[in-house]
Amino acid sequence: MSRLGQLLALLGALSILANSRAATPNREGERFFTGKVQPILSEHCHSCHSHNADKIKGGLVLDSLSGFLTGGDSGPAIVPGEPGKSLLVKAIGYADEDLQMPPKGKKLSEEQIRTLTQWVKMGAPWPGSETNKAIARGKITDEDRKWWSFQPLQKVSPPDVKDGGWSRNEIDRFIYAKLAAEDLKPSPDASRQTLIRRLSFDLIGLPPTPEEVDAFVSDTSADAYEKLIERLLSSRHYGERWARHWLDLVRYADSDGYRIDDYRPHAWRYRDYVIDALNSDKPYDRFVKEQLAGDELWPREKEIMVATTFLRHWIYEYNNRDVKGQWTTILNDLTDTTGDLFLGLGVQCARCHDHKFDPILQKDYYRLQAFFAPILPRDDFPLATAEEHAAYKEKLRKWEEATAEIRREIGEIEAPHMLAAGEMAITKFPEDIQELVRKPRAERTPYEHQIADLAYRQVLYEHTRFHSRIKGQQKDRWETLKKQLAEFDHLKPAAPPPVFSVTDVGSEAPATFLPKGKKEPIEPGFLTLLDDKPATIPVVSTAPNSTGRRTVLANWITDPKNRLTTRVIVNRVWQYHFGRGLVGTSSDFGKLGELPSHPELLDWLAQRFVEDGWSFKKLHKLILTSATYRQSALAPAGDITKMKDPENRWLWRMNIRRLESEQIRDALLAASGELDTNPGGAPVDASKARRTIYTKVMRNTRDPLLDVFDAPENFVSTGQRNHDAEPGVVNDERRVLARARARDGGPFGEAKPGH
Q1: Is 678 helix (H, G, I), strand (E, B) or coil?
Q2: Secondary structure of residue 245 in the 3-state scheme
Q3: CA 430, CA 426: separation in Å to the nearest integer?
Q4: Engineering a disulfide at 293: which of 360, 410, 476, 551 sits with its beta carbon 3.0 to 4.6 angstroms away?
Q5: Domain ranges of the chain
Q6: Residue stretches of the chain with pLDDT short of 70
Q7: What pTM did the predictor assign?
């Protein structure tokens, strides 16, 4: 047999072996199990099938992997990798009348069934050993407090180094000290042609023109490099490039997701808000506060309401009758994204039990969620000042006076059909939701109003489709009246566009509870490890009819002494310049993440960032003017270097990086001379030659070109593109679902061809 034949035979054998046993635990599998599978088992299975059950039914134990593999009276519960041969999958699907789990009509939801089926298909990954069970921490230990990311920021000074004049600023002294300690040396500078290309793609996402390259190469002035940085940072294209990083993190999209994937016609205003904020170098602390609590802190500024679209990027299913379940999913998504984005911690693992690895208690998850518990999605705020809105209302009054009789007759025709359409929508809900929708608003609790409001969106959707109910002569008359009404369009003013935003439901917050726990409300608060007392919420909010909770959260996140958030954001900026952060897992500073390669530099940068007024542009300049950033990526590695640092953690050269999908598309259009660089506005189809930042981001109808080059899925916060990350680092349990979630067939539906 040839060597190729032997290799193929070996790969085949390994494939068979892999499919015949449980998957080796890795970060992806561990997080999927902890975040998705374990909660289902705890809630629906362990009361009858665990070592803690009063009586183990059927001899089946499901609190360890060995229990699944050994099985009970009917045999092994699962065949890892083969859902079709697994009794568990058959039982939860009620495929056999004699084998149904859970029994007595308590069948799992379709999503839960898909989750367990996918887990078996993945090879049934299980954290730790086969007999490992979920551990309830209950308290924070002294050992927990020693983890590096929970330590206060250290006051550090750049080390003194003998580098022969290599260092250009303080960053280089930190880098050189580590290189010297490892007996490594930095690489020479990259060529000028390379540097202008590197800077251009990094800062504005576009290639330099031949004329720009020639001008920079021939510029012999001492500050030519610094002038180039200033020019690029001053370009409006800078905001267009760096907004893309932030939009990845907040899972921005122009559509709802799920099967219908409705277009969100006003979401793009948030995209333009981010671009403008970055171009103006808005301080990061203000940038964060506007997004988390702009409606409370600056309620009279119309642009600030656009910032709160940050709180609306969750996916939405237009016909989900389980309204309470959908609201829980929305709040969970906001909590998860806040943990990933600002804290660099996968808090979602504590949703159903204390975090297995990190010192995050289950109550911490709901303390954090309690800050968001009062929110109410709003689509009725006009993007206008008080004066602009008053002027609009005055013009509208004149149109209403002129068309009163026509509109009255149209209303008489439409009303019964609209009422019937709305009633049809209401009756599709469970009885308890129907009662809430019909309940007078003044009699609802804050939580009841949130649920009724979310349900009523489905009623409003049906109101837009009532026209098909109008028939015969009535339809003829209705169409005639509509034409008569159109004759007055010259009097009708254009309405100010609505803002896709949120407010609180009122000054009273709905209570937050632990699932399946004691029915004692959870007060808003931060990680117990950092502050075990409930957060102090002002008695009177800064905004009328609001709780002020999100203001407290925003102030805590942007506190200069916050040991997590300042480290997280400067690490992200470093990652976007070098392809890898000082902490390689930029959204995971916990025990499943990497340790920082240069902890002193990370703390120094975090403090410098705050001292420089939370300025992104000053941070860019500091990094870009370093000798570390200017190194060649093509320097040959000696034997010692290959052994000591094959992954370039100590930065003895620049990392080789592939262009991101948006950069590739924009560069192709720029090179062909077709690129349309007009800024802002509603997104266009990808067939147009606009910059990619201005093309539609539809969650389920994806641009094939961007997909090929690993554009994010936009379902969850994306801290690292797949081509930059280590295997198993980026694809946590939420991202396992991302490509398939909310397509036909639900979270585990088939991915599109080419995925």
Answers
A1: coil
A2: helix
A3: 9
A4: 551
A5: 3-121, 283-379+502-559, 384-496
A6: 1-28, 50-55, 105, 128-138, 517-518, 540-541, 723-755
A7: 0.80
